[in-house]
Amino acid sequence: MTAGAAPRPSRTRSWWGWGWADAHPDDAECTAMGALVPGTLARPLPQPEVADLRIGRPAVEPPGSLAPLVTADPGPRAAHAMGKAYRDVVRALRGRPGRIPDLVAFPRRDRDVAELLEWAGEQRVAVVPYGGGSSVVGGVEYRGDEHRAALSLDLTAMDRVLEVDADGRAALVQAGILGPDLEDRLRPHGLTLRHFPQSFEFSTLGGWLATRAGGHYATGRTRIDEFTQALRVVTPAGTDESWRLPSSGAGPSPDRLFLGSEGALGVITRAWIRLQERPRHKASASVAFTGLDAALRAVRDIAQSDLLPANCRLLDAGEAALAGASADGSAVLVLGFESATAPVGDRLALAVDLARAHGGRPGPEAASGTADDGAVRAWRSAFLRMPYLRDGLARMGAVVETFETAATWDRIPALIADVRSELGAAASRATGHPALINCRLTHVYPDGAAPYFTVIAGGRPGDELAVWDELKAVAADVLHRHRATITHHHAVGRDHRPAYDRQRPQHFALALGAAKRALDPHGILNPGVLVDG
Amino acid sequence: MTAGAAPRPSRTRSWWGWGWADAHPDDAECTAMGALVPGTLARPLPQPEVADLRIGRPAVEPPGSLAPLVTADPGPRAAHAMGKAYRDVVRALRGRPGRIPDLVAFPRRDRDVAELLEWAGEQRVAVVPYGGGSSVVGGVEYRGDEHRAALSLDLTAMDRVLEVDADGRAALVQAGILGPDLEDRLRPHGLTLRHFPQSFEFSTLGGWLATRAGGHYATGRTRIDEFTQALRVVTPAGTDESWRLPSSGAGPSPDRLFLGSEGALGVITRAWIRLQERPRHKASASVAFTGLDAALRAVRDIAQSDLLPANCRLLDAGEAALAGASADGSAVLVLGFESATAPVGDRLALAVDLARAHGGRPGPEAASGTADDGAVRAWRSAFLRMPYLRDGLARMGAVVETFETAATWDRIPALIADVRSELGAAASRATGHPALINCRLTHVYPDGAAPYFTVIAGGRPGDELAVWDELKAVAADVLHRHRATITHHHAVGRDHRPAYDRQRPQHFALALGAAKRALDPHGILNPGVLVDG
């Protein structure tokens, strides 16, 4: 068998950590960060090497017709062994990556995918669809033992923009395209998908669709669902696609069953996506609040208005301090407006007025309403660097992870308070040190919001995963008690499966299980995520 | 068994036609309308009487425990025999209403529904969920012969608003509530669902949810899907509900599988719905266009802006003339803006500018931008009276019906032209007279629009249904050829089933069929709609 490697950018992706290999913090930076977290190591763990892994021979071999699409080389297999959660990084650092896929396939067209699925069905090979590999919920690894082998199905060789309908603001795009490539190819048309998850550089359209990714923008159309006009899905039971429609009332939405299906029902190979004109008018401001509760009420008022800010991120005091957006213990609301149609200064001013009515203090540059102010800039640059810093801290033996949820407004204040107190107590118990627990709202809705938590704790290098699993279980219990979703935009994967099973209504569980058995009769598609066949 | 009649308003609903019995046009008005349509009757058909129907004894009798919820009286059975499509009205007028349900049940709580379903499963009784009965697609009647009997499950006794979360802009509401009652109970809280389908007075929340109803507003949040926060569903396999969440990425949306499920997967008995503040600022205007194509381009530009008009209805020349909105052969665009947050005059002015750039001529009152102009008022009053006039024309032996679709912008001009020419030719062939075929856009999207057609033809009184079925088949073929959905907001029911089966992707058909069998193992839920078990 020969390696049918996908086209790769010239920079090298890290096989074990976030993003580009050359962007990892160096040992000195790691050590400096570690010094800020009590109970961490004095020196960073070494960056792991693929050569140190024991990677056996694959348990199956593909037939000759498929061999050109498939590789059994250690490099791609190691890189496809898991996603990019904190626990994945630690597993790599500690030399315990778990089960490594027997094979990695790089299909080039739908027929390749269909043939791979057919062969996998016959051979009882688990097939794990893989886009950019940025899952943080155990979505791209095989953990079972009921299959003869595991194949990672890497879609990134299917990365073309096939058609652009500029008048109709839509494009037909293959699922394996990475975020920057997609935007590069839309730019000449003056159009953008305007969907920027934090993983944007390292995730694919297909991954966004399969996980119902949340975009960067705080209100209005931001989740990938809303940008989906039609989907083509390859399943073991056949390949078909939905019609391009702006809207339809003909039965339950066919696409909505596959959006968020995480590769368990089929492989999304292409989509018609809805595009937007690139914004020409922008304005942003920050508003500081002495107390979080007043800030929450201000954000609720703004979310319930029809002002539709592109950004409406509320950073609690800790988060604001970490991002350099405030140093006096204030919570900071970062507001941004964008439009391709008309200037947005009036909308910004109205939103700032709503914030002021709840005691908000606009930043010094807000009055102009035309350029990003200092707090906004500080927050943005911290945001993009965050996952790299997480990996640096992981090398110092720290526990450092995020999780996000969403709940209705009535539950938000107590939910945030309970996560903070119960997680704080659990961290102290587990590590003997206080943990840093920060919160921001990433998305706001008229009827609720999505809090996003960051946890940083030291204290038990070597046992980091046990500590994290303990903290995550506490967090999941708090979320469940408040009927807050186990994930707002990071999918279920394998890590959230127990919580998802408790959250999902039984009628839907029955329907989903039945759909799974109908579309995937051999139970080969991403076994372990979402639902059992 | 005793009649457990639901609470009724003091006015009487027509058992055979649209709306209130006392609002039907009288014989003189019918005759005057008929005179405008060549080839109709000289005198109206008489209004039909329940007493003239042959209504047999029911084939089954419910057990004593359920008897208080169920009636076998002819009146309710006749009124529940069908919906309110043109073809339903003609069937009643011609004394051929088809199969009349054996029983009508009025459950008062979820347990009643569950027990009725259990009994129906044991007895092989088809259960047809029924809200306001305003289906225009054969959604509320049993047409099969594989069941021992048919029961109409009328939800209107479950009509309470159970809880209002005013801060969180949401309410928990039973599914059987009619539109006006819901709004009456929300008004004291200063809130509104702001979902106004044309059937508003005569349809229920549960009906809107089960059919994915489209609201009155042209852009933004308008379909009931977007106002759905959580659903409780009673199925033969059990009862459960989704969590109240503003948004979630945990797997495919559970609610989206039941939105549009038309009673085939379960009975929606309550929902948490998202509410809005009542708008305080309004502005509207009309803009006339000499040609439809220029108007379509203007509407596309407005839909692709972020102005979000509440109304953006484009009436073609015929529709505008019929509504009294224009008399000179112009197409008319009716624009309206609403907000609870801020004045909307600026947004109206920007939209009018976009229309002007395509040759649009604003109406005389548009400049003020504060009150409804004449064309707007004329159109609104015609809109509300339309279904009554349809029934009056039906009594004159005319064919008079509407159908709607949606398609991407690239297909809209040819789609409208082809419907007009092919339907016109078919009508001439079938009746020997030219037909009136009008079109308006009811909803617009950045990537497409929803054209809504009205057909009025005379010529073969007595054979109206054969003529209409012929025309509808031609229309369905044109829609299919243009990949335009068989319904934008009137559901599939039994009338659209063949077209829906051609439109729906096979992978979804497999999933839906499997879900149906899992949730409804005895195949009793609304047999014939959407999918076979």
Short description:
Chains A, B: Pfam families: FAD-oxidase_C (PF02913), FAD_binding_4 (PF01565). The structure is a homodimer of 533-residue chains. The first copy, chain A, has helices at 27-34, 74-79, 86-93, 110-123, 179-186, 205-211, 254-258, 292-304, 317-322, 345-356, 374-395, 412-431, 464-481, 497-503, 506-519; strands at residues 70-71, 103-105, 125-130, 149-154, 161-165, 170-174, 191-192, 228-235, 238-241, 267-274, 276-277, 281-289, 311-315, 331-339, 361-362, 399-404, 407-408, 436-445, 448-457.
Describe this structure in words.
The structure is a homodimer of 533-residue chains. Residues 1-6 of chain A have low confidence and may be disordered. In chain A, α1 (27-34) crosses α11 (374-395), α3 runs parallel beside α11 (374-395) and α12 (412-431) packs antiparallel against α13 (464-481). Chain A has helices spanning 27-34, 74-79, 86-93, 110-123, 179-186, 205-211, 254-258, 292-304, 317-322, 345-356, 374-395, 412-431, 464-481, 497-503, 506-519; strands spanning 70-71, 103-105, 125-130, 149-154, 161-165, 170-174, 191-192, 228-235, 238-241, 267-274, 276-277, 281-289, 311-315, 331-339, 361-362, 399-404, 407-408, 436-445, 448-457. The first copy, chain A, has 533 residues and is α+β, with helices and mostly antiparallel strands. Chain A has a domain at 21-154: Uridine Diphospho-n-acetylenolpyruvylglucosamine Reductase, domain 2 (2-Layer Sandwich), CATH 3.30.43.10. The longest helix of chain A is centred in the last third of the chain and has 22 residues, at 374-395. In chain A, the strands form 4 sheets. In chain A, strands 12, 13, 14, 15, 16, 17, 18 and 19 form an 8-stranded antiparallel β-sheet that branches. In chain A, strands 5-6-10-8-9 form a 5-stranded antiparallel β-sheet. A 4-stranded mixed β-sheet of chain A has the order 1-2-4-3, covered by helices on one side. Chains A, B: Keywords: FAD, Flavoprotein, Oxidoreductase. Chains A, B: It holds the Pfam family FAD_binding_4. Chains A, B: Residues 96-278 form the FAD-binding PCMH-type domain. Chains A, B: This is FAD-binding oxidoreductase.
